Protein 1
Amino acid sequence: MKSSRLLSILMLLHTRGRMTAAELAGELEVSVRTVYRDVESLHAAGVPLYGDAGHRGGYRMLAGQRFRLTDLCEREAEALVLAGLPVAAEELGLGGDFADAVLKLRAALPTPLREHVDRLRARFHIDAAGWYAEETEAPFLSQVSDAVRTGRVLAVRYRRWKEPSEVERRLEPYGLVLKAGRWYLVAGPGPRTYRVDQILDATVTEDEARIPEGFDLAAHWRASQADFHARLHQGDALVRISPRGAARLTGPAARALAENGTPDTDGWTRATLPVESPEHAHDFLLALGTEVEVLAPEDLRERIATTVRTLAGLYA
């Protein structure tokens, strides 16, 4: 653990130039006293690291010194290589750059570690799209990516679900998110989320985008996803479900079954499942066929019974 922290200190100083003990402590989530001890350990190991006192002081590497990858441990090298799996680089127009970066990283590793990560890369592959999701094309993804990387305002023509269905917007890109094989742009004003495959035209302008200070893309996405799922849950359905039907549940329904399900004497389970709307609940539960019985609410039970009677008449 300490060796990994010492390596992190060297990487931070190499990339940022100068950092105070307090800044290092904040990045590493340790105390300032721990940073002082780590710096002493680095000095004792002969690392050319020195500190300046005063208001503008801090630690930095000796001029001309470079951080090298020869000190990476096996698990750190694995993490770097797996983090670089080419899931999105090709779509963003960075496939060639990604390949070059991997070659440089590979060449910088010691021979035994290089051979190890080569074997590892051959055994991992990520296919981000869902099984039943249609492949979506996002012809303006490269322009959107350029705007995000350069911090420029994006002028777009966008297709939305309500009228008018096509609108023009000037967006200040905050970041791109890849979710289940589909790209989303988080942008101001707002911020709001836009599906990149619904962008009908896009131009990167010369205007500089203004991103709110302290904006955290990952935290914003988690919060927006939590809000989305909370708004989906509009009601509950009390059901009895067979083991086979239970195995087909996913997401919130599966979690609800695991958390509040109680076994019946016939091997089925009684549970309250969250539903999005009466229409969704009808279609979702009817798809389970004879593996589920809706007990409540009564209007949902009657609606499914009506559909079943209609089906029976069609197949009589």
Protein 2
Amino acid sequence: MTIVPFEARRFRTTALYYNRFRVPYPDRLIERVAERTSLKSGDRVLDLGCGPGPLGVAFARLAGADVIGVDPEPEMLDAARENAAETAVNMRLIQGSSYDLNPDLAPLKLAVLGRSFHWMDRPATLAALDELIAPGGAVVLFSDRHIAATPDWRDVLHQLSETYSPEKSAERKLRRAPEFGPHEAVLLRSPFRNLERIGIVNERVIGTEDIIGRAFSMSVTSPQVLGERTEEFEAAFRSELAALSPDGTFTEIVEGHAMIAFRD
């Protein structure tokens, strides 16, 4: 099974954009996951690869969970700290990765991962979490699926990323290749093989600035990766978006979903 090489500062320079422009996880999704997993106030939740903490903050805010956030990027942890403070929730933050899981984190009710599992050695991570998650607990993978975009700007971004960031674009293709394998297949070969999915579908109206910001939040087109070509990339992307939508308005239908993986 293909494993993406670990890069500790992969998301350097993206925290501000990630925090503002990534598709948010609906509160209803967090609440339904908390209900389905019988999460109680005070239960410990590990937000692994927490980024700026949207999941961890939501579980603390909506379910009263005792949240630990782990991420290798200091800028992301700073953003998570600010978000927790603004929301008036407590969240313990640790600089580290899936390779740093240790018994001090136990006992966990849940380990939640938002758009981060594909960066990890997935079988090894699940084996480590099996040692930390208490009986009755679960691993929950959060992500989003873009059902439609009108006008559809996504192919434009992919084409520009291949032009301006060919190395990272090749890595993205590696993660989408058949030999990488879907998360479901990895989970079914792990202790957490009892799978369920919950999805919430929303329609959102966004603008050019939202799309530009989302591009800069991605590892393949981050300011760090683009370097001196950042302004050139942005100008080219803005030109393409203006051609697609002269008034700068776009509509997208997105499913935020959570895959809950229980033990048998």
Protein 3
Amino acid sequence: MWIGPLDKAVVKAFSLLEILSQNNSPMGITELANEADLGKSNVHRLLQTLMTLGYVRKSNDTLYTASLKVWELGSQVISRVNVRDVARPYMQMLAEATGETVHLSELFDNQVLYIDKIESREPVRAYTHLGGRAPAYCTATGKAMLAYQTDEVIDAVMAGATAHTEKTIVLPEAFLTHASTIRAQRYAMNRGEWRKDVIGISAPISCALGRVVSAIGLSAPASRVSEKQLKAVAPQLIEYAEKISANMGCTGSVWDALDQPEM
């Protein structure tokens, strides 16, 4: 796409602002010029403009940093983002690719709350209903979210855990170990732990602050879909979860750090 002279100045200014926002410490003009591949006089002029507008401030006589106005604008945008609206196109693509039931869930009172779903085209399908709840510790979307909570939250949930099938994890220590695996692989599986004849897979969705706030997943009858087939969907599922998270304000660096549990 062709960029005119005035547009180029805007592009350069936003480039500097992005560099300052992503850097953990204040930066000088020379460092910024090298990072943005711009002349130092150009960088100085753009910084003066950004300072006048309130998006950049000086931390001392020679160093610059992004101001809280950047955070303020981002927060206002994020506050208007609805995860269901963001996730819906990816849910549809997942449903079309697999033909199975796709869920979007949140944690509510330590349970899974189904906030959106797309039904399978198959006559035999995994049964859930919109607005319904299920135990978080033995469903795919529930485990994908629960794995990223604090040990205290996990302990509280597992304190009330009961075995729904012979595969249900009910011991807190066992779930904590399982949660570590979920974080490392970035997806969770339900291997008939809630209902014996239903299996599923899910990936976490993060907000801008790096908190897992929801999960996208699919479920299917174990008689039709194998664990191997579900695992084959994992890369696509994780990709969609990351893209949804990005649209929720979660940056790449925040997403990459999700495998660290909350303290």
